[in-house]
Design a protein that fits this description.
globular; seven-stranded mixed sheet; 2 domains
Length: 525
């Protein structure tokens, strides 16, 4: 008699890169996930999966951020934690901009097109909205508060809402006050559900990197609510497991998607098994013997009826399309004049005369999220007819950044580099080297300890040369670090020419979980 075939198992995190504040729904057997995007443009990434583990990147719900305010990088602003729902034949995204208010976009197809953002609730400090349409046709909205904008946090507020989500119908009721709960700080990120006559608010507390997941229930959307903690780090290496989505499969299984803050790698996404106790409360992760908050699982069998699929968000780009790949984003609302894509394996960056000598303040940095494992990011550069002082290169960008590339001088071309951050201007990363031609291959390698090393060569026949400098990668403002490409000319220069960028190659190594809780990787090939 043959032995039973073991069920395929997945390893957390299921999205090992910066997909912050995930929310998800299941529609007709497919799962759709969205994430915060902050100042990145396009924003509101939309992903799809058939097994809750392997995800493909469908596109973005927000081609640009509303208003002229976002013509420059606004680090830490833009799209905070959104909510995704499917109701009345449409997909709905409610997202907050902490400086402007709560917006709503809809689509019949999650791949788009999405409607223009509708400002549902104007005001500062309004964050983390989530709608609930009730059985009787009424609708509600729950949201949190940002102390950095309005001086208030650690509370959740519920409003009556018009069913078409065009307006709120009252001034709201504060239904959960974290100050009144022992040990609670920074309760936020609420998700609104209804089950068996109970109104449920799933909400994290305790901070991004150190918190836990709680759930609250009431017989009325306006409370009173009772709550308990259902997921915490406990003995696991997964810090701050919280803020995400309860999803039910067509087979009736319940799962919970949440994030873990990994510093420079951003907020990676984990998948936890979930169920319901006889007393009506949910459990998540690995159940504890004392009935307390569950512990995150590191591995688990796939949802019933599914297994591994060969899909993943893209990273490398051969530039064979005349449209920008879904992995890319700008640091602010984009000008079409920044980039031309002929579709022939090259991207042509058009330097603007806007170099602030600080790449954190440059809107036309073309970036993508940093993989959560050891990786390399490489491409080729060629300056063509650009003015003196123009620079172009690759950058690893967070609160601090470092770059390597080419600088056009009055006499020719130099190997240029720099490091900077929140100070007005940057410092050289290494001594300049004269180049014989305006072409260069450049590569950034990031190791398992999130240290970056920079390499260059003057042609594929030459050896890679490594700079002596090592850069400690740091996170951005509420996001992980990014890998990017840029081109900029000095302020006041006459704009001309372009920078030809060859295919971008991103290589990663498979990850293993170290006892310390860090995800390490073998050497990148």
């Amino acid at each position: 008699m043959s032995s039973p075939v073991p069920a395929p198992a997945y390893t957390n995190p299921v999205l090992n890169a910066d997909w912050p504040d995930p929310d998800a729904v299941q529609v007709d057997g497919s799962y759709y996930l969205i994430a915060s995007s902050f100042n990145r443009v396009p924003g509101l990434p939309v992903l799809r999966s058939r097994n809750l583990v392997d995800w493909e990147h469908l596109g973005h719900a927000l081609p640009e951020l509303p208003g002229r305010h976002y013509s420059l990088p606004r680090h830490g602003s833009g799209v905070w934690a959104p909510a995704l729902r499917h109701h009345d034949g449409k997909f709905w995204i409610f997202y907050p901009d902490p400086d402007h208010g709560i917006f709503v976009v809809t689509a019949t197809d999650p791949a788009g097109p999405w409607t223009e953002p509708h400002l549902l609730y104007e005001g500062r400090g309004l964050i983390d909205p989530c709608p609930l349409w009730d059985d009787d046709g009424s609708a509600y909205l729950v949201h949190g508060w940002a102390k950095s904008r309005i001086g208030v946090k650690n509370r959740l507020t519920v409003h009556r809402m018009s069913p078409d989500a065009r307006r709120l119908l009252d001034g709201g009721v504060h239904v959960i006050d974290g100050e009144a709960l022992a040990g609670y700080t920074t309760i936020e990120g609420p998700k609104f559900y209804k089950r068996d006559g109970w109104y449920w608010i799933f909400a994290p507390a305790g901070g991004v990197a150190t918190g836990w997941q709680s759930v609250f229930r009431s017989r009325s959307p306006f409370g009173p609510y009772e709550g308990r903690r259902v997921l915490a780090q406990n003995s696991s290496p997964v810090n701050g497991p919280h803020q995400g989505a309860w999803v039910t499969t067509p087979e009736g299984e319940d799962w919970f998607l949440h994030f873990q803050d990994r510093g420079p790698y951003g907020r990676v996404v984990h998948l936890q098994p979930m169920g319901w106790d006889p007393d009506g409360w949910p459990w998540m992760g690995e159940r504890t013997s004392d009935g307390g908050a569950g512990t995150p699982v590191l591995q688990h069998a796939y949802p019933t009826g599914t297994g591994p699929e060969d899909v993943a968000p893209p990273a490398s780009d051969a530039f064979t399309s005349d449209k920008l790949g879904r992995q890319w984003h700008w640091q602010a609302n984009a000008d079409p004049a920044w980039l031309t894509l002929p579709g022939d394996g090259r991207a042509l960056l058009h330097p603007k005369a806007n170099d602030p000598v600080n790449l954190r303040e440059l809107p036309n940095v073309l970036g993508q999220i940093l993989p959560g494992v050891e990786c390399s990011f490489s491409t080729s550069l060629k300056l063509d007819g650009v003015p003196v002082g123009t620079r172009a290169g690759v950058v690893i960008l967070g609160r601090q950044y470092a770059w390597l590339g080419i600088v056009r001088t009055a006499d020719g071309y130099l190997l240029g580099s720099g490091r900077g951050g929140q100070r007005p201007q940057e410092d050289p990363l290494t001594d300049a080297v004269e180049l014989r031609a305006p072409t260069l291959d450049v590569r950034i390698r990031v190791d398992a300890g999130h240290q970056a090393r920079f390499e260059w060569r003057t042609g594929t026949a030459s050896e890679w040369r490594m700079l002596n400098a090592v850069f400690d990668v740091v996170e951005g403002q509420w996001i992980g670090a990014e890998l990017g490409i840029f081109a900029a000319s000095p302020l006041g220069s006459a704009e001309s020419g372009g920078v030809i960028v060859g295919p971008v190659q991103v290589d990663t190594a498979p990850a293993t979980l170290e006892p310390s809780g860090e995800f390490a990787a073998a050497a990148t090939p």
